[in-house]
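Reviewers of the previous submission asked for a worked example of the structure-prediction workflow described in the proposal, so we include one complete record here. The input consisted solely of the amino acid sequence. No template or homolog information was supplied to the procedure at any stage.
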Amino acid sequence: MLTKRIIPCLDIKNGRTVKGVNFVDLRDAGDPVELADIYSRAGADELVFLDISATEERRKTLADLVLRVAEKVNIPFTVGGGISSVEDVDILLQNGADKVSVNSSAVKNPQLINDLAAKFGSQCITVAIDAKQIDGEWKVHLVGGKVPTELNLFDWAKEVEQRGAGEILFTSMDHDGTKDGFANEALAKLSTALTIPIIASGGAGNVKHFIDTFIDGKADAALAASVFHFKEIEIEDLKTELRNNRIPVRL
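From that input alone, the workflow returned the following structure tokens.
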């Protein structure tokens, strides 16, 4: 059985790590290079680095910061924010990223997924999907959750897989930063419908939430930010509890 992955997420704005609630009310969470180093040594399986204002401000991901972070870590590292072309990805991978995450640009130009997968391989391509429930239906949102679309989460996820994405990072905007648990019902539906890995994001508040998302949500990986940034949960302790609950993890 494949081990489940624990992934700290570093949301970057103006060169600093930030964290908010429901995608707003951001507060400073520290230097991303220092945090990346800490997590790498603490037993994280991967890191995700998202320049959350890159798409909104129509600028590219901070490639130099990616280079400095990559120099500090020895675990897989995903980079996202403002990526809209093969050339963007080429620069990031050259600077040390192992994978890239595309979101708004993939919705606006779905062919981008095909092009990236063909050029770099599906294993390098993560498609991030931010969604929230509107009138009982999960709707995809763009530009850091600011722009709603008519896209259905599950329809878009299936298309993403068919176009060659290697994994999906699903963030429930309804759960983000609330620490009330992951969107396990939606996660389980995604995991059942697709064959590629699903990363759960949005809602981690305690160890049980991680246990639940792996068992009930059938997630392949769980991503969190503030509970790690502010040391509410230590990764080593989390993995010990997961192992105690018969969830396979790398210790």
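The first strand starts at residue 5 and ends at 13. We consider this example representative of the routine output the project will generate in years two and three.
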